Amino acid sequence: MTSSSRPPGLIQRYREELQVRHYARRTVNTYEQWLRRFLRFHAMRHPRATITSKHRRQVALEALTILRQHLDSTPVHWILTHLDEIMENHPDDSGQNLREKIADLMPEVRNLMKEGDFLELEQRIAADRRIALAGRHSFIAVHPDG
Questions:
Q1: Taking the CB of residue 55, how many other CB atoms lie within 10 A of it?
Q2: Which of 15, 27, 82, 94 is placed for a possible disulfide with 23 were both Cys, Cβ 3.0 to 4.6 Å?
Q3: What is the mean pLDDT of the chain?
Q4: Domain coordinates of the chain in residue numbers?
């Protein structure tokens, strides 16, 4: 593959996105240097690969707590997004199957959501074919439309 046909790397895509947003050149350079240091610290892995499932869970629950405190509501789509992340990264190194992960998360989520919102969440999870078809150690990707 030649360099002209190769897709741009993470840093180049980041630079381009900041330039499209009309960030100042010095700001773009500063952010680029921060990103380079971040990648070097994490052994040149993509930032998405440096965050463990435990961290993702903690961030999702903290965000739900903040939403509950400030909005007196916890949007169902917020936790569904986290569940999508769990399914995208399954299986991981935790040893739990998909259903166990969701079951472990639900008591904490229940405490943060209104009863009606939690019932809606349970219904949406029950209707998700990806969870129903997930085996003990495998994950079958099925689109919601069949």
A1: 10
A2: 27
A3: 77
A4: 10-48, 51-133
